[in-house]
């Protein structure tokens, strides 16, 4: 299938945006400006972008602890994301969530999630809600190879399959559940094989090829939207950074990392765009320059934003109860 | 006034809310065709159809998580766990997801869901089907915890729980399901966070929950024969807690006994005792006494179950130790 210039450039833009945002986050984390745990998505951009390119604004996603890529791909605003990473009042979650808990209900982003596998049933629930409300919304649940071993995977895929829910389960198989290589944490090679157990389609795709991800996701999402039920999509990919920033990654060989760096998803899309005369090198450079500017604006916004007031600590626990604040 | 069982009152609340609000739907194990293990949802499948009365696989995590996802996106699910004990299987979804989403996301997502669960001993269901784990939930900021003791309260509180915009853990006592009682003719909500004085008295305050409210009332009748007038308060919601009603009773009686079916160690009863010790110390004329289950799993055979679960004699003895 022919993918339009517009879609290709949009995907390029989003992928570069994720890369540039996260490279900056890595620097800021090293400088101590970004707080807490940070799990970077660099290297996996083709998955989030190839999938979300097929989603409408009102569609839902559930994300993971490695969530920046999903958020940006689904239309998250860099300013509010960066401010959240800084722990500022202007952040997406007013500084109460941080990297692992960013959500934007207005864009259907039902939250990053600090619990591995936590999003499966929630995505199924959002899909059930869409179905019951009679909308054509679809939910996409992003998760990793490690999460495929959680009990939630089984319960949610089973219930989604019997109820034919409009949900697509997208596995980012980056070969490692934290430090444990896939061949040590499960006895199968292709996680998509597990779809058989639920009577749903399972597809494995090169997760570093955004065009391939886009095509597979399009079919799965259309299938969900048309009432045919869930699909399990497995995208084979690799994270360039450690599990978290500061992880020395002693568990993976250098040759393996080199091998995957050569399969870089952004380089591949760039080559495709240039080889097929879809855009010029200058056009791509202009896009990149604009993104760098946007990232810097986000950093500036985050740096200049205030921290939350102390009273905020006891707000938002309930809709109607403010907990007692400590008097110092 | 109508006469209803506790189970019928719960069903009436579900029916009332499902009729009133198309966003309300039910999901749980065997709640449809079978009508619920304790019969609470009997007839609702026929009345509302399988889209809104959803039989689920035996998957407590999925039941809870699906309810969360639906609640976050515009529905108002009421999920049933067959026994409170099974919430252990769903704890991540309840504690790490439902309870925290609003806060983590800066107040921008709300989770209006109810998780119903039968608690308590008394039917020889043994250690994995008899627990009273309410303290686990009052310990988690973001959850409300409701525990009715009468059909009237069951009806009014469940209506409020369903209308509440926060995740509510709704505890039901399995021995009470068949208990009959008077219920108002109209289905009115009873606000969460308002205790009910089930019996007035001047000599001692007894705070009791669930089935223990009835044991406390029986104990109070016995005590009255000996000239001791106990005030029996049912908090009805464990969080938010109506401290004012308990404290104003205490200002009158200066003595308090707390009766719950929980294992005593680490109980909600302990939390209430600590609050009273911190905030009402000057009003106390005697030590705070707790009457709870023993610190054991719930045994199977009736003779042992009766040893572990508090009864009227234990309550009378506790009262007499401080009056």
UniProtKB/TrEMBL annotation, chain A:
Keyword Oxidoreductase: yes
Record-linked SUPFAM superfamilies: Thiamin diphosphate-binding fold (THDP-binding) (SSF52518)
CDD domains for the chain: TPP_E1_PDC_ADC_BCADC (cd02000)
Keyword field: Oxidoreductase, Pyruvate, Thiamine pyrophosphate
Boundaries of every Dehydrogenase E1 component domain copy: 14-309
Enzyme Commission no: 1.2.4.1
Domain of life of the source: Bacteria
Reactions this protein catalyses: N(6)-[(R)-lipoyl]-L-lysyl-[protein] + pyruvate + H(+) = N(6)-[(R)-S(8)-acetyldihydrolipoyl]-L-lysyl-[protein] + CO2
Listed InterPro entries: DH_E1, PDH_E1_Alpha_Subunit, Pyrv_DH_E1_asu_subgrp-y, THDP-binding
Cofactor(s) needed by this chain: thiamine diphosphate
GO biological process: pyruvate decarboxylation to acetyl-CoA
Keyword Cell cycle in annotation: no
UniProt xrefs under Pfam families: E1_dh (PF00676)
Enzyme category, top tier: oxidoreductase
GO molecular function, one term: pyruvate dehydrogenase (acetyl-transferring) activity
Job of this protein: The pyruvate dehydrogenase complex catalyzes the overall conversion of pyruvate to acetyl-CoA and CO(2).
Subunit comment: Heterodimer of an alpha and a beta chain.
PANTHER family in the cross-refs: PYRUVATE DEHYDROGENASE E1 COMPONENT SUBUNIT ALPHA (PTHR11516:SF60), PYRUVATE DEHYDROGENASE E1 COMPONENT, ALPHA SUBUNIT BACTERIAL AND ORGANELLAR (PTHR11516)
Protein name: Pyruvate dehydrogenase E1 component subunit alpha
Organism: Caldanaerobacter subterraneus
Taxon lineage: Bacteria, Bacillati, Bacillota, Clostridia, Thermoanaerobacterales
From TrEMBL, chain B:
Annotated source species: Caldanaerobacter subterraneus
CDD domains the UniProt entry points to: TPP_PYR_E1-PDHc-beta_like
Residues in Transketolase-like pyrimidine-binding domain copies: 4-179
InterPro entries the UniProt entry points to: THDP-binding (IPR029061), Transketo_C/PFOR_II (IPR009014), Transketolase-like_Pyr-bd (IPR005475), Transketolase_C (IPR033248)
Protein name: Alpha-ketoacid dehydrogenase subunit beta
Lineage, top ranks: Bacteria, Bacillati, Bacillota, Clostridia, Thermoanaerobacterales
GO MF assignments: oxidoreductase activity
SMART domains: Transket_pyr
Cofactor(s) needed: thiamine diphosphate
Key words, A-Z: Oxidoreductase, Pyruvate, Thiamine pyrophosphate
Superkingdom classification of source: Bacteria
Pfam family, one: Transket_pyr
